[in-house]
Amino acid sequence: MFKTFDPIKNKTLRVIDNEGKIIAAKWMPELTDEQILKAYKDMLFARQADLMTVNYQRQGRIYTYPPNYGQEAVSGAVAQVMRDDDWLVPAFRELGAYLAKGATLQEMFMYFMGYEDGSIFKNAKNFAPISVPIASQLVHAAGIGYEIKYKKKDQVVYTFVGDGGTSEGEFHEALNFAAVWDAPVVFIIQNNQYGISTPVSVQTKSQNLAVKAIAYGMKGIKVDGNDFFAMTKAVQEASEHAKSGKGPVLIEAVTYRKGAHTTSDDPTKYRTKEEEQEWDKTDPLNRFKKYLVEKKLWSDKEEKKILPEYKKEIDRHFVAAENYGEYPLDDVFKFLYTDKPDNLKSQQVEHERYLKWKEGK
Amino acid sequence: MVNAINQALEIKLEQDKNVIVYGEDVGVEGGVFRVTEGLQKKFGKERVFDSPLAEAGIAGSAVGMAMAGLKPIIEMQFSGFSYPAFNQIISHVSRMQNRSRGNFKMPFVMRMPYGGGINALEHHSESMEAIWGHIPGIKVVIPSTPHDAKGLMISAIESDDPVIFMEPKRIYRAIKQEVNEDHFTVPIGKAKVVSTGKDITVVAYGAMIREVQKAAALAKKEGIDVEIIDLRSIYPIDRETIASSVMKTGRILTVHEAPASFGVASEISQIAIEEAFLHLEAPPKRLTGFDTIVPLPKGEHHYAITGDKIFYEIMRTVKY
Q1: What are the tens digits of pLDDT across the range A256-269?
Q2: Do A256 and A193 form a contact (C-beta atoms < 8 A)?
Q3: Does residue B177 fall inside a structural domain?
Q4: Position B298 in a domain
Q5: In this structure, are B237 and B117 located in the same domain?
Q6: Hey, what's the torsion of the CAs at B33, B232, B199, B257, to 10 degrees?
Q7: Is residue B31 domain-shared with residue B137, that is, in the same domain?
Q8: Range of the domain at B228
Q9: Position B175 confidence tier, pLDDT thresholds 50, 70, 90
Q10: Looking at residues A172-199, what average pLDDT do you find?
Q11: Which of A152, B24, B57, B138 is most buried, by the most CB atoms less than 10 A from its CB?
């Protein structure tokens, strides 16, 4: 597959078309109907959660949030392949993958409400915290990959970056390190066409983003990131490749950020309605649904029935996050060091003295 | 303040063909805080443009531009994302004039919003001015009013020395002030006495000035007369203004959002000791952020420096 889709040929791996029809059965990933249906439902859930989060933000109940809307198939595919032991090293727009890893919506809500405790991810094994500085997490993935290889473990690291992130030096350093070490890392670029307002054409002169793999001596592939099946196939193959000691893989998932960069951003400033409508035709869930309906695995009726359940479930997590309670002063100081310096202790004591004075006023 | 900085950029883009403005999302969008709004439209994509997303690349290419005779004004979207550029700043921006024995000038301006109080995500609330102030070879300024922002920005652009221009984003749109529309400068390295007083000197800058003013009003009710100094330049620091104020009041408190250790307040306390030791009636005092990460919004109130807390420290210092 990596030969057929050598990035230099600028071909895109695609399995179903925008109508959900199979156009390349050869690349259909091996999945049972049950798995396929679950994947769709998980993506539907993630979308619903995402849409509701933007609404909560508009209601002033949560702070800045980066929507995943339109990019659900990328995380959905990784969720199919990623095992409990595998590592997930995220950026900040991979909601479906977090949930698959065992993170809860409540934790995610807490994080974006401004609770550090939202990064604890109690039941998510080998899940790195959300990383805001663009592309900086990719080098960590290379380091984790080194450990896996050194300890001869059966694990893969999945790590994410956006199209804008491919301009950062650390993106290139991470690919190079992972390739030099033959580290089992799958790098996934969510090419959603924009870094905030800046289009890919301003980021790079390369014909595609997958081609950057070639210079580092590793495999790369450009995939229709809105095609769940193509993405799953690519992640499966990349994972096998990485696990077998042949080195890392770079997947460019071509997708579209239907929402804003974050809730503080206004996309009408930099893109047209026409462009958005054009991309709407490729929407990952619509395509997937058409496929399922055709195969009689799913129906509008079932979707209508399940959405209110999802909404209830999502709201339950949200309310739990909202009721998490006070953020104690001690939590500001508690985790910064394992061995807390006295200096820090006295700063806390000083502050408590002030609070006492304030109370007594 | 957003408009004032925008005006300064516009004036200099108009006056000097060598002035170039670039960074992430500064062109089409006009910056995430709209500081560069309208400039690309007016001056074209060759002079005001979006760069690839790479802070080291932005700062490093600006070094080359400055060496070749341009006057780059670059933006770091948030100060918390400026660190990939750190290598360029500490290894080249700050050293080029010295290394080339003055052959290459470094008319380089790096703008960036900084500071807390906006309920932001991680890396969007820090105040790390001391890191930059510690580097020999660069100047660091922080305005607290639209007028100073404009005047300092024009000075920064007209300077042959590299200037890091930190913008207190919490008060980007908080202060309404008539600003002269023409070209004017505010000198780099000069502090401003915001209000005179005889009992204690309080030094601050950026968004903290407003909080100090609140505290001074509270102190006034207690009969305490506060002299407020807006530092405006972190480096070079205005020793003279600080010294003469402390000689008068005998007491000094410095307030900043940044962590305490190795911070600007320590520097100011030391100046007070060196310049006015025999006039001091209390040890120079610091009121700063904790030596911790700025907490996410649900915990940020613990970290925030409020007028109330400044008032508390003023009273403690006065009653020492």
Answers
A1: 999 999 999 999 99
A2: yes
A3: no
A4: yes
A5: no
A6: 50
A7: yes
A8: 192-318
A9: confident
A10: 98
A11: B24
Q: Which residue has the tokens 């727009």?
A: A93
- Residue contact B312–A114, C-beta within 8 A: no
Do residues B317 and B285 touch, judged by C-beta distance below 8 A?
A: yes
* Joined tokens for residue A62: 């949560």
* CATH code of the domain containing B82: 3.40.50.970
Q: Are A208 and A252 spatial neighbours (Cβ–Cβ below 8 Å)?
A: yes
According to DSSP, residue A127 is labeled B
ipTM: 0.94
Cβ distance of A196 and B119 shorter than 8 Å:
no
Asked if residue B197 and residue B81 are part of one domain, the reply reads no
Q: Which amino acid is at A105?
A: L
Note whether B120 contacts A331, CB cutoff 8 Å.
no
Q: Which two tokens stand for residue A355?
A: 């609070």
User: Which residues in B lie closer than 8 A to residue A359 (C-beta atoms)?
Assistant: none
Rg (alpha carbons) of chain A, rounded to whole number: 22
B127 with B113: CB under 8 angstroms?
no
Compute the average pLDDT of residues A95-121: 97
- Assess contact for B93 and B64: CB atoms under 8 A: no
Count the helix, strand and coil residues of chain B and give each as a percent rounded to the nearest 5: 40, 20, 40
A70: left (phi over 0), alpha (psi -120 to 50) or beta: left
B176 occurs within a structural domain: no
Question: Do B53 and B146 share a structural domain?
Answer: yes
Helical pair B307-318 and B208-221, crossing angle rounded to 10 deg: 50
What chain A residue is nearest to B52 in terms of C-alpha separation?
A203
CA A50, A56, A61, A66 torsion: positive or negative? positive
Residues B162 and B30 in one domain: yes
Q: Position of tokens 């903290």?
A: B208
Gap between the Cα atoms of A316 and A206, Å rounded: 45
Residue B63 lies in a domain: yes
Instruction: Report the length, in residues, of chain A.
Output: 361
* pLDDT bucket at B176, cuts 50 / 70 / 90: confident
- DSSP states of A136-175: HHHHHHHHHHHHHHHTT-S--EEEEEETGGGGSHHHHHHH
Catalytic residue among A270, A316, A327, A353: A270
- Which CATH number belongs to the domain containing residue B310 in this structure? 3.40.50.920
Give tens-digit pLDDT for A182-192.
Answer: 999 999 999 99
pLDDT at B260 over 90: yes
> Do A203 and A167 contact (CB within 8 A), yes or no?
yes
Torsion-angle region of A126 (φ positive above 0: left; ψ -120 to 50: alpha; else: beta): left
Instruction: Provide the 3-class DSSP secondary structure of residue A157.
Output: strand
Cα distances (angstroms) measured from residue A27 to each of A7, A12, A232, A335, B148: 17, 12, 10, 47, 62
Give yes or no: A98 in active site. Answer: no
Contact B314, B226 (CB under 8 A): yes
**Residues of B involved in catalysis:** 124
* Cβ atoms A78, A43 nearer than 8 A: no
Token reading at B278: 């025999």
Q: How far is B250 from chain A (nearest CA, A)?
A: 23
Residues B156 and B17 in one domain: yes
CA B199 to mean position of chain CA atoms: 27
| B83 and B149, same domain (yes or no) | yes
Tokens 């992130």 belong to A165
Which residue from A minimizes the CA distance to B122? A132
Total domains present in chain B: 2
- Taking residue A251's Cβ as centre, other Cβ atoms within 10 Å add up to 30
Based on the domain organization, do B164 and B238 belong to the same domain? no
Contact B291/A343, CB-based, under 8 Å?
yes
